[in-house]
Amino acid sequence: MAIRIAFLGPAGTFSEDALRAAVGEAEIDARAAPTVYEAIRAVAEGEAERALVPFENSIEGAVRSTLDTLAFEAPSVTIAGEHDHPITNSLIARAELPLERIEVVLSHPQASAQCARFIREQLPRAEVRAAASTAEAVREVSVSKEPWGALGAASAARIYGCVVLREAVEDTPDNVTRFVWIAPGGTKPAGAGPWRTTLVFHELGADHPGALVEALTEFSSREVNLTRIESRPRRRGLGRYMFFIDLDGAENEPAVAEAIEALRRKAESVRILGSYPVVANGIPGT
């Protein structure tokens, strides 16, 4: 039986493109979800065995909906792997029309931000509106009689019977999104080569100047390399944050395990979101 995998839909999103590239020739039951939250919750609730969701972009940084869902809404899932996917945004319309006639540009906020300079310089009179996904933006444009445009994948233009007005409109050519595989808690991925561990912590017990630096020193003093740190509000008033960290190494490596244990003595909460191989083919943990 084909494995059930949730992704941010509808058909024609960059998430679907990334999923097809990540699984190769494997037979899957791809299930579109209307939001990242619902894609992750599908795994938490047993409606899907895996999900592939965007985690961070090389231009716009972290995908906040993914971080917040993992932190607040899905304690029973784990990150089991990752997949880097190049992103090429296209300006798409229902039919050919001059750029100066476009009144509204629809897209997911991440895509709009990735193309901010193009919008500013080429579509200065257009109103930017948010859609749940890039494909949903293209779908809305396809059924509108107004002179609207959408930012999305060229594959979405084909699916919804639209035309590509401009290709590669992102602000920088090296536009890559890192997707992560979401699996049920307890899933044990396997793979040779380098590993990465992702964790979130909050509420440093000794809250004083330098407390965060002292917490992070637990890693540097053991020569554990941190590759990313991101703060997000804890939703419990101003000035209260949680910190997401990516580090090189598996959670059971001695130096990594010691550093995490030392961090637990300094923070109220430390949760490992996943420990997984950086480079792997196919669907992790299957």
Q: Could you explain the architecture of this structure?
A:
The protein has three domains: 3-86 and 177-184, Periplasmic binding protein-like II (D-Maltodextrin-Binding Protein, domain 2, 3-Layer(aba) Sandwich), CATH 3.40.190; 90-166, 3-Layer(aba) Sandwich (D-Maltodextrin-Binding Protein, domain 2); 195-277, Alpha-Beta Plaits (2-Layer Sandwich), CATH 3.30.70.260. Helix content is 28%, strand content 35%. The chain is built from nine helices and 15 strands. The strands form three sheets. Strands 1, 2, 3, 4, 5 and 11 form a six-stranded mixed beta sheet that branches. Helix 2 packs parallel to helix 3 and helix 8 runs antiparallel to helix 9. The longest helix is centred in the last third of the chain and has 11 residues, at 254-264. It is globular and about 60 Å long. The model has no long low-confidence stretch (mean pLDDT 93).
Write the layout of secondary structure elements.
Elements (H helix, E strand, L loop, with lengths): L2 E6 L5 H10 L4 E6 L2 H9 L5 E8 L3 E2 L1 H10 L3 E10 L3 E4 L10 E4 L1 H6 L1 H7 L4 E4 L3 H10 L4 E5 L1 H6 L3 E4 L9 E9 L10 E10 L6 H10 L5 E8 L7 E8 L5 H11 L2 E11 L9
Parallel strand pairs: 1-2, 1-3, 7-8, 7-9
Antiparallel strand pairs: 3-4, 3-11, 5-11, 6-9, 6-10, 12-14, 12-15, 13-14
